Amino acid sequence: MRRGPHSGSSKRARVNHQINAKEVRLIDAEGQ
After folding, report:
1. CA distance 6 to 2
2. Angle at 10 between CA 13 and CA 5, to 5 degrees
3. What sign for the dihedral angle of Cα 19, 14, 7, 5?
4. Does the CA dihedral 24-27-29-32 come out positive or negative?
5. What is the 3 state secondary structure string of 1-32?
6. Is the dihedral angle over the CA atoms 9, 12, 16, 18 positive or is it negative?
7. Residue 5: CA count within 13 A, CB half-sphere
8. Phi and psi dihedrals of 11, rounded to 5?
């Protein structure tokens, strides 16, 4: 009855990666 460990964590990790990329892009734009 256990759900796969990658069922929800993979989606969350993908979203977090997109958010981090946006933040890094904003920081780089401000730094230059």
Report:
1. 11
2. 125
3. negative
4. negative
5. CCCCCHHHHHHHHHHHHHHHHHHHHHHHHHHC
6. positive
7. 0
8. -65, -45
For residue 18, give both structure tokens: 């997109």
Q: What is the pTM of this model?
A: 0.42
CA-based diameter of the chain, in Å?
A: 52
pLDDT in tens, 1-32: 556 555 666 777 788 888 888 888 887 877 76
**Rounded Cα distance, 16 and 27, in Å:** 16
